[in-house]
Amino acid sequence: MDSLIIVAQAAGGQDVAWWEVVSALSPLATLLAATIAGTIAWQALKQRSLADRRGEWWGRAQWALNAALSEDPALKETGLGILGILATSSLATDEEIEILSVAAVQPLAQVSRPSALPEQGPAREQGPGGEQRQARAPETQDRIVRRAAKLQVVTDRRLDRPTEEWIRRLAADPK
């Protein structure tokens, strides 16, 4: 046996060389390769889409964090509200939820800390140019604190942390 040639027999009893068998299966191999390539491309498209959606989520979160930490009460209230919505998204990781929860700390700390001295007369605050102006309305501050409490409840729930009872009551207050 000088040369090694593998020969198969066809249904009619004829001898068929191995390369004829391989050439007959090549369309099947092409279909298999196309299926594998298509699956890989589909997975890459899904991953890219998720990365794009997460990037957009983070852009919104950055805006809302800046707004929530702003000195402008209306902007602060809006930012805290948007953070509460963003915290419910499945796109957010635990680390990102932890970052969002930081925005609730300062407004809630003001409420949990009793004032050392009671206010006398209408409260005044210094404006950006140094001028004196009347302090924010209490109802605006109340809405900011409620938004912060709601954000704290949502982030605690997402991170499986207990929320203090007074924060839960504050978040549920329908005022």
TrEMBL record:
Keywords from the named record: Membrane, Transmembrane, Transmembrane helix
Biased composition regions of type Basic and acidic residues, renumbered to the chain: 133-142
Membrane-spanning parts: 24-45
Annotated region (Disordered), positions in chain: 113-142
Entry protein name: Uncharacterized protein
Provenance organism: Arthrobacter mangrovi
